[in-house]
Amino acid sequence: MDRLGSFSNDPSDKPPCRGCSSYLMEPYIKCAECGPPPFFLCLQCFTRGFEYKKHQSDHTYEIMTSDFPVLDPSWTAQEEMALLEAVMDCGFGNWQDVANQMCTKTKEECEKHYMKHFINNPLFASTLLNLKQAEEAKTADTAIPFHSTDDPPRPTFDSLLSRDMAGYMPARADFIEEFDNYAEWDLRDIDFVEDDSDILHALKMAVVDIYHSRLKERQRRKKIIRDHGLINLRKFQLMERRYPKEVQDLYETMRRFARIVGPVEHDKFIESHACRWFLSLEQYLCVYIYINRRDNGVFYVKFYK
């Protein structure tokens, strides 16, 4: 019998039965051979031998229940959880409402049990103290250093770099000048009134649909700029120049496919070809050195990793 089932009194907190999809009420059955995710059945579906996909009726099983004592022989685990939930809902000291919510204990029993096991229990108090000390050790009162960053750059307003970046505002992650910046102008004179004819109403709706498509195109271009790191254009250009001419030509050719394969896969493709080019160059140099040494009467080969 598994004594680690869900202790919540709310049946909706438990997963539904895989046989009838009803809320599970304790005790219920958990298949010990299926999962993850765990395979739960109510007693009715279990007794009629419900089978589903890989689950068979002869599988080993566990009985999920919380009907066992934890801190006091007269209190079950389900009642312990119900007491904690009632105190959290009704407030500490409101023992009458706590007892009314529990339904199985009087207010005197609730107060006595809570004070004995959760307030005056030295083991419980020491555990809380250790947790508090560990939390204070993790969150030490020390200064956290912050360093300024230039990626993306933060140029002054209306500077040359700011105009090159289309007025990008890093704090807002947006642009002063949008793509298709005057798209909203087509809507400024549109007004929907009740006496519009069907044709006029359809025409106005078409203008709104066109405006929505222009907004989608604006967001699509922003996403491409962010995903591919095109905001900091100068940094992007410096990264391109670090490749040899052969790889730069490939980079220029494959640029148009970057938005199809995605930024990460595109960078992996370019980097792999750059590594291949450097390896082929290193192999060529090794062969060239070997031939020169052989012509000079030196007969040995040096292997490079």
From TrEMBL:
Q: Which domain of life is it from?
A: Eukaryota
Q: Which UniProt keywords apply?
A: Metal-binding, Nucleus, Transcription, Transcription regulation, Zinc, Zinc-finger
- List, in alphabetical order, the Gene Ontology terms for molecular function in this entry: zinc ion binding
The SANT domain sits at: 70-122
Give the Myb-like domain ranges. 74-118
GO CC field:
SAGA-type complex
Q: Which residues form the ZZ-type domain?
A: 12-69
**All residue ranges annotated as the HTH myb-type domain in the record:** 74-122
InterPro entries in alphabetical order: ADA2-like_ZZ (IPR041983), Homeodomain-like_sf (IPR009057), Myb_dom (IPR017930), SANT/Myb (IPR001005), SANT_dom (IPR017884), TADA2A_B-like_dom (IPR055141), Znf_ZZ (IPR000433), Znf_ZZ_sf (IPR043145)
Q: Does the keyword Zinc apply?
A: yes
Q: What name appears for this protein in its UniProt entry?
A: TADA2A isoform 7
From which source organism is this entry?
A: Pan troglodytes
